[in-house]
Amino acid sequence: MPNLNRRNLLYAFGLASVAPLLPAQTAATGKVSVAMPGETRFSFSTASQAKLSPCKLTGDDTGGALTAFELSALPQTGPYLHVHHRQDEWYYVLSGEFLFKAGGVEHTLPTGASIWLPRGIPHVWANMATTESKLILVCQPGGFEKFFEEMGAAMSKADAANAEKIMSAMFTKYGMEMLGPPLFKPLRSMH
User: Fold this and answer.
1) Please, what's the b/e burial string for 20-47 (b: 16 or more CB within 10 A of its CB; e: otherwise)?
2) Dihedral sign from CA coordinates of 143, 145, 149, 154
3) 77 forms bridges with which residues in the sheet?
4) Strands (E), 5-132
5) Which residue has the higher pLDDT, 30 or 116?
6) N or C: which end of the chain has fewer CB within 10 A?
7) What is the pLDDT of residues 107-157, one digit of tens each?
């Protein structure tokens, strides 16, 4: 038997006891993924969705680890107050200034700031700038591009009378809940 000192033995037991608590790593994809400016790696069925949320990394690109988007938001717009039950989100402000309300606490984020939103925390955000502004959104696990695809396709056909009902059903399908209105105006115009 190899000579083990007490420190190495305790270290080994510590690793063995913690390892099951760590999230499983996804399989390596074995490929490099590149998205050029203005390009989306996911083929959205509507041009408006491709412009609103170009997908820079898909769930397939990352072996299911995450999905990354470059979101565009017009002044004084943002999503409805909602909560994710399956996804964690990280936002990074590329341009403009955004107000995030997470778990009832307000955070004003200028260009270069970021916020981590774990699943289970109700949140909403809005572009506070007077011009169109941009965010990087990273969702984990990957696959959230499918939500944006279905939401974009459904909303392109929705009328104002049914829009919230359609959005609520789509949120439910993807493990989220709509909890209240946006801070100002919704990201999507209602037809």
Assistant:
1) eeeeeeeeeeeeeeebeeeebbbebebe
2) positive
3) 185
4) 55-57, 67-73, 77-78, 81-84, 88-95, 97-102, 105-110, 114-117, 123-127
5) 116
6) N
7) 999 999 999 999 999 999 999 999 999 999 999 999 999 999 999 999 888
- Give alpha helix (H) positions in the chain: 6-18, 47-52, 145-157, 163-173
Q: Is the Cα torsion angle 160, 166, 168, 170 positive or negative in sign? A: negative
In the chain, where are the structural domains located? 39-185
pTM above 0.85?
Answer: no
- Count H helices and E strands in the chain, helices first: 4, 12
d(CA 129, CA 144): 26
- For 98, residues 6+ apart whose C-beta sits below 8 A from its C-beta are 73, 78, 91, 108, 109, 125, 126, 127, 128, 133, 135
CATH code of domain 39-185: 2.60.120.10
